Amino acid sequence: MENVVRGLFFAAMASFAVAAFASGNPVFAQDAKAAIEQRQMTMKGFDKKLLAIIAFVKRGEGSAEDIAKRAAEISAAAEMLPGMFPAKSGRDMVTDPKTAALAMIWNDRIKFESIAVELVAEAAKLEKISMTGDKAAIWAQIGILGRNTCGACHDSFRAELD
Amino acid sequence: MRRAAYSFSIITAVLGSLGGGPAHAASVESVTRGEYVFNAAGCAGCHTDVKTKGPPLAGGRVLATPFGSFYSPNITPNQIHGIGSWSQEDFIAALRQGIAPDGTPYYPSFPYTSFTGMSGSDIVDLWTYVSTRPAVPRTDERHKLQFPFNLRILMWGWRALFFREGPIEADPNRSEEWNRGSYLVRALSHCGECHTPRNAFGAVDHGRELGGNPEGPNGKSVPNITPDDATGIGSWSDEEIVDFLSIGMTPEGDFAGGAMTEVIDQSTSKLNDADRRAIAVYIKALPPVRNQPKK
Known about the structure:
Chain A is mainly alpha-helical and 162 residues long. Chain A has helices at residues 2-22, 26-59, 64-80, 104-107, 109-132, 135-157. With 295 residues, chain B is mainly α. Chain B contains 12 helices and 3 strands.
């Protein structure tokens, strides 16, 4: 009986693998698709949070506590960022959904991950500065965070957008 | 403390040469103005080898071009390796004429082609400020250029064809703000050195000012920043340009990367808002160039 169960299990696994291979690795494709969607949503979230912080600086919208919370959220999400770039989820491997992620992300993983770590740190600094409500200092820190992390990462690891 | 003492001694020396008394206040102000000019001109960017964490202004930064690799020189006041033995006249000749103290012409990798447009007072203030920087005994590296570009004598011909010496003259038909922007963009901040395409001889094509350069520094393309709607920044407002120059954020919420990050860090973020706005006014008034410089 035990052998029958084991045999059925291996047969199921084998047919699953054959099906996956025949249809172009749908298991990986599904993983890649989910990862691409997740990271694109995370980046849009960064944009939204930064825009809220900028609205405080420029138009006095919200409070220092509100924007500090947004900065903390950016820092927390940045911790998860490298995990959203699994192998084979670059633009050379996946066409649907569209992604601008260059193969360089996996070829120079140390640099890629060090920028993500810097984003965690710079967003944490932004959180601290935000608590002070000092608009000039917050504005300057948005620039440091943006140029050293968003800009640096996009410059090396993102294809030119259409 | 030693640095403070050194700076003080330099200022004192400058004051001494100017005759003391009332000149004292003027010289301290000149150092302050010179620091602003220094930042606007982005001197630290090229003259510091950031990659190897080299000392400020001690040179050694490589600039890869289609003609070969240029290495920036030490411009600290070191007497042997820097410009400590120069006179103020030497400094003016370098920026205004592109001529070294020994009479040889500089390669245009040093943007004297733009700095020639600087006002005399800005050059003197810059000289005063640079003279207060710590001296560093770092030896310059020789440029590594392909033949025939390694023959510096050819620069005389290049200059005859492409170099026009002299400060930028104000246009009386334009506003003061536009004229200030013109001065910053074309001379002091030398934006065209990267953003304007060059001809086969490496000379800036003034007919397509700021129209984007497919062969920018280190082989990277540099965007078109004329007000062309399709390929430039025609959709950006003055305020969006000011914000970009201040912190590097584009109207889409993205951020500058590559060489522009340094320009913002070391130069445009240190300008006052009036100057950033003057740059925006000048850029927005440029004739649009339809050019997509991406490689």
